[in-house]
Amino acid sequence: MAAALLALLLLGPLAALLTSAGLALATLLLSVCLPWWAGLQFAPAAALAGLVLAYPLWSWRRLSAAAHFLRLEMENLQQQGLSMRLRKRPGESADFLERRINAVERASRQLRDLHHFVSESLQQLPSPSLVCDPEGLILLANRAAREHLGGDAQAPLQGQSVVDLLADLVQAGSRQPLITQEHLRDRSLPEHSEGSDAQGRSLLVQCKPFTDLANAGWLLTLVDLTDMRRALQQRDQAMNFISHDIRAPNASILTLLEMQRAYPGRMAGDELLLRIERYAQASLGMAESFVQLASAQAQEYHMAPLDLVALLAETTDDLWALARDRQVDLRITTAPETALCEGDRALLRRALANVINNAIKFSPEGSVVQCAIAERGPHWVLSVRDQGPGIAPELQGQLFTPYQRLHDRSHPTVHGVGLGLALVSTVVQRHGGSLEVDSDTGRGAEFRLVLPRGEGAPEGDENGSAD
After folding, report:
1. What is the pLDDT of residue 412?
2. Checking DSSP bridges between strand 368-376 and strand 329-334, what pairing results, if any?
3. How far is it, in rounded angstroms, from Cα 59 to Cα 8?
4. Helix (H/G/I), strand (E/B), else coil: 81
């Protein structure tokens, strides 16, 4: 009996049944053979009765426990809103246990469908979303999260540590990681926190713990705020420009008029008109530069085949008078017969004019501004070199920031608001190219516009302009 009960405890139903039958058969054999072998005899009836009754009693208790468990589970599932059909349906077995098993199976199928629906819904979310356990191991991740983390959109992230994947996401001020193992384990992550990653993106991290689970996990959502932060920065720059830079010339005009009204005759009429004209032109130039930069950043580009050689020739012709007035020699040193590319002709011409105009303004009298076009693999390199004061390497990172003027002290007579090179950088980047600077203090500067080559032919009016 002890061996039979041990088999019922440790083995499966079939193995326990076979073990009980084997023990009953062994008991009968021992009762027959022991008197012949050892002169011993025992009554096998009690052992056989126990072995025969043990398995049915055990099966009844197990069946009763299983039925009780299924009843509790069905009640829990009904409380969670799942439909449970406990009544007998036509064609269904009358056995109550089988009906309950079928009901639980239907409920499990609904749960699997619900899990699949939740998983698919997570995949369709536009923001990167991650579901992880208390230790930070990822359980679910949508497609946006895989793309955000720089991996294959189809490669799963399950099993990886969210702490390791977001290790470069740090707070803006302290530069401390936003997500750490201690924060996850102690459930101390704030619901909303903002930081930046190694790629310079501003991210809002939304954290929500699963408080209704015994083994609580986390839902992490990343919201990219880079464009919004950039828009706010541009708004602040625009407000500063409007409130200070563009108001200054107008305030000077009003001051001159008030002085003339209060002290008539102190300033000659021609001198007054000349000063008013200069301030008005400065204000108009600032406003035009601001509008051009805003248009280059926001408007849709009209891409068409064009010839950079013809574009460079037209631009140098337009600026020849300015170069002559400043006694600067403007030359095209080297260029192929044609340099075809796809681009917005008006914006590229404006960007190129800004670069050449700066080279002329900062070049000393009698110097040379050299323009050239060369081929570099799949790109055209359009370079403009001057013999001006040059730019220190530590200042070159500020060249393309709006409203930055690096030569206010060295060249106070050169006017501007620092928007020309910002427009150049915007136009070149939106054409899929890059802008390079080669300069140092005292040895001039060379700006290189690197633009992708195109295979289309230039339009007829461009050829005519080049001629």
Report:
1. 45
2. parallel
3. 9
4. coil
Q: CA–CA separation, 87 vs 70, rounded Å?
A: 15
H-assigned helices in 326-432: 345-361, 420-430
Q: Are 458 and 305 in contact (CB under 8 A)?
A: yes
Place of tokens 């209060």: 262
Beta-bridge mates of residue 376: 379
pLDDT at residue number 94: 57
Identify any residues that bridge with 300 across adjacent strands, giving them in sequence order: none
Domain 125-224: assigned CATH number: 3.30.450.20
Domain boundaries, the chain: 2-98, 125-224, 230-299, 301-466
Tokens 């540590």 map to which residue? 161
DSSP string for residues in 118-171: HHHHHHH-SS-EEEE-TT-BEEEE-HHHHHHTTS-TTS--TTSBHHHHTTT-EE
Query: What's the chain's average pLDDT?
Result: 78
List pLDDT tens digits, range 400-445.
666 555 454 444 444 444 567 888 888 888 888 998 888 888 788 8
Structure tokens at 68: 């009780």
**Domain 301-466 fold:** Heat Shock Protein 90 (3.30.565)
From start to end of 303-354, where are the E strands?
304-307, 329-334, 340-343
Closest CA to 136 of 121, 112, 158, 152: 158
